[in-house]
Amino acid sequence: MRAIFLILCCLVAVPAFAYEFETVLMVSIDALHPAALSEKTSPTLHNLMRSGRYTLEGRSVTPPLTLIAHTAMMTGLSPKESGKQDNDWKPGMPQVAKETVLDVAKRCGFQTAYFYAKQKLGYLISAAVDEHALARDDGVDRARTFFGKPGRRFVFLHISGLEDAGTESGWMSTEYLDELTSIDRTLAPLIAQVSQRGPYLIIVTSDHAGHDRQHGTNHPDDFRLPLIMAADRPLPALAPGLFQLTSLKRMLEFMLVPTQAR
Questions:
Q1: Which CATH number fits domain 2-257: 2.30.40.10, 3.40.720.10, 1.10.1740.10, 1.20.120.30?
Q2: Do residues 99 and 75 lie in contact, with contact meaning Cβ atoms separated by under 8 Å?
Q3: Is the dihedral of CA 42, 45, 49, 53 positive or negative?
Q4: Range 134-139, long-range pairs (CB < 8 A, 24+ positions)
């Protein structure tokens, strides 16, 4: 808790961040174990780590499952607080009623888009989303098209593939690492485009990891996740210690929302 407080204090101390970004890209790479990140397996992400700020000591919520964790990530609330304690959603069922990072972006004057690779994440669509799609294979292409239009733009992009590789072959297996390399290669042109759109902020994280061929259990590895932040300007240092997934929305608010509007 003290570490997160220090992180937020660092962000508050840099008021110039508020309202100055032209482009914000948030990427959630589903089931990414932080130990998989390296210059060899993920050079694009490694470059972001080198130029920005990162921690490999992130922690998911209980239970560490895709929809529950993404709801926590986007709302800043625990499963109990958000009311989303199951990992299931289908079209026609009620959608999120709590404020999400997309509401924050919309309030700050961004056009917003949400592209997700698993149907259940449609739960997180709200009136704050200008464009959305279930994008199992073309999420990066959709994001690039969205960013190709003028104006202040915010994209939340969910990418899948690692969970299948981990379940079939094992987390940290050759097949898992190969899948990460493929994802990293796919992200490269999007990262380059964002960095050429003027003032930008890029955030990359995950919902959970796994161990052996399992995930969603109480094993410590299942809760692990990274946080990477890069921008066109220096970012405040992340305090040492554990990063809680539910802190991400609040961190984003400190970077986007003017002090007087909080």
A1: 3.40.720.10
A2: yes
A3: negative
A4: 136/160, 139/115
Give the separation between CA 43 and CA 250, rounded to whole angstroms.
Answer: 29
In the chain, what are the domain boundaries? 2-257
Which H or E run includes 224? strand 224-231
Total number of residues shown for the chain: 262
Assess whether pLDDT exceeds 60 at residue 7. Answer: no
List pLDDT tens digits, range 156-180: 999 999 999 999 999 999 999 999 9
Report residue 80 as tokens: 């109990």
Q: What is the pLDDT of residues 30-43, one digit of tens each?
A: 999 999 999 999 99
* pLDDT for residue 234: 87
Q: How many CA atoms are closer than 13 Å to the CA of 92, on its beta-carbon side? A: 0
Q: Tell me whether residue 88 is exposed, middle or buried, using C-beta atoms within 10 angstroms of its C-beta: 0 to 12, 13 to 18, 19 or more.
A: exposed
Give the span between the Cα atoms of 111 and 51, in whole angstroms: 27
| Whole-number Å distance between alpha carbons of 135 and 158 | 9
Measured between alpha carbons, how far is 241 from 139 in angstroms, rounded to an integer?
32
Q: What would the DSSP string read from start to end of 238-262?
A: PPSSPEEGGGHHHHHHHHHS-GGG-
In whole angstroms, what is the distance from residue 5 CA to residue 24 CA?
Answer: 23
